[in-house]
Design a protein that fits this description.
Elements: H1 5-13, E1 14-17, E2 20-23, E3 32-33, E4 40-45, E5 48-52, E6 58-63, E7 66-70, H2 78-88, E8 93-97, H3 103-106, H4 109-114, E9 118-122, H5 123-129, E10 133-135, E11 140-142, E12 153-155, E13 158-163, E14 166-172, E15 182-186, E16 191-193, H6 214-227, E17 233-235, E18 241-242, H7 244-266, H8 271-276, H9 295-308
Parallel strand pairs: 7-8, 8-9, 9-12, 16-17
Antiparallel strand pairs: 1-2, 2-3, 4-5, 5-6, 6-7, 10-11, 13-14, 14-15, 15-16, 17-18
Helix pairs in contact: 6-7, 7-9
Bound molecules: zinc ion (ZN).
Zinc ion (ZN) binds next to loops.
């Protein structure tokens, strides 16, 4: 087993969200849910917000054309999220854009699709959502979504929306976190959602079982850096609102740690020896949120990604 039991338990069975607990099973997700779980909003610009509090961060764009969401958290909070949005605006939810297939980012798809939202994603996201997925890291099968939760518009490379007085560019990235990662850039508001390719407080996770890789992640971050500028508000899947400098720091950290691990593999060192050498040491205080990925998990993840290419 690559990751320790505590980590698996933390991610697959009990997702502790603040002081509340979300209980998940592989067959029916979720079983129970604390309905008093809190969702919060942070205002990004005059007409854009981030909704956070459970699962992946959600971007909310409000305008005359309606509401556009980027990602939609876990299924159990969908009603709560819809109430929260209704308290801000009476506009309908017109589009939902999924950054990737993971259930903490697409959980609201079925309910929102049923309510009339048009769901949009990269074609690989739809393919994965359309059939059961074995999520190797948590050793669980994630059931396929019903038809009403599937994206009804897909793209292979890029797509642009002209809505809410903005030009919203969706860019397919490389095989980094998964094989369906996209960044969604609201050019006029200068806000981008980068899914789980970046965090300003935690090491990344490459989901090798559904197409992720360290080299793809580095390539994806370079693409993101080229899309944004100094003033862009960067919304990560699970951390705070960040900026281009921190994305650059993250890319440099990945390049450095990958290089150290690659050299040690070439020298014939074992995974244990590589972990013992602490190749992430100088970054451990910066990316200190170990609730999901600890330094040794990150090293293992890179090691496995590099080994899989040999
Ligand atoms: Zn993810």
């Amino acid at each position: 087993m690559i990751y320790d039991t505590k980590l698996l338990t933390a991610y697959s069975l009990l997702l502790v969200v603040g002081s509340f607990i979300l209980l998940i099973s592989s067959s029916n997700f979720p079983i129970t849910f604390a309905t008093h779980l809190e969702l919060n909003t942070t205002r990004l610009t005059e007409n854009m917000y981030v909704i956070h509090g459970s699962g992946g961060n959600v971007i909310l764009s409000i305008g005359n054309d309606g509401i556009i969401l980027v990602d939609d958290q876990y299924a159990p909070v969908t009603e709560k999220m819809m109430s929260l949005i209704a308290n801000i605006t009476n506009k309908p939810i017109k589009f939902v854009i999924n950054t990737h297939w993971h259930p903490d980012h697409v959980g609201g798809n079925e309910r929102l699709g049923e309510a009339g939202a048009v769901i949009v994603s990269h074609e690989n996201v739809r393919k994965r959502l359309n059939q059961d997925q074995f999520f190797e890291m948590i050793n669980q099968t994630i059931p396929a979504l019903s038809k009403k939760g599937l994206p009804i518009i897909t793209f292979s490379d890029n797509m642009t929306f002209y809505q809410n007085n903005d030009e919203i560019r969706i860019s397919y990235l490389d095989n980094g976190h998964t094989d369906g990662d996209s960044a969604v850039y609201f050019t006029q508001n200068n806000v981008i959602h980068v899914g789980d390719d970046f965090s300003d407080e935690a090491y990344p996770f490459m989901d090798l079982s559904t197409g992720g890789s360290i080299d793809g992640l580095i390539s994806s971050l370079k693409s993101i850096i080229s899309i944004i500028n100094n003033d862009t508000k960067v919304v990560a899947g699970h951390s705070g609102i960040s900026n281009q400098t921190k994305v650059k720091d993250y890319a440099n950290m990945l390049i450095d740690v990958r290089s150290l691990i690659s050299s040690m593999i070439k020298e014939g060192k074992s995974l244990d020896e590589i972990i013992q050498s602490k190749p992430t040491a100088q970054y451990d205080t910066t990316y200190r949120d170990y609730s999901f990925i600890k330094p040794k998990d990150f090293v293992t993840n890179i090691y496995e990604s590099l080994k899989s290419r040999q």
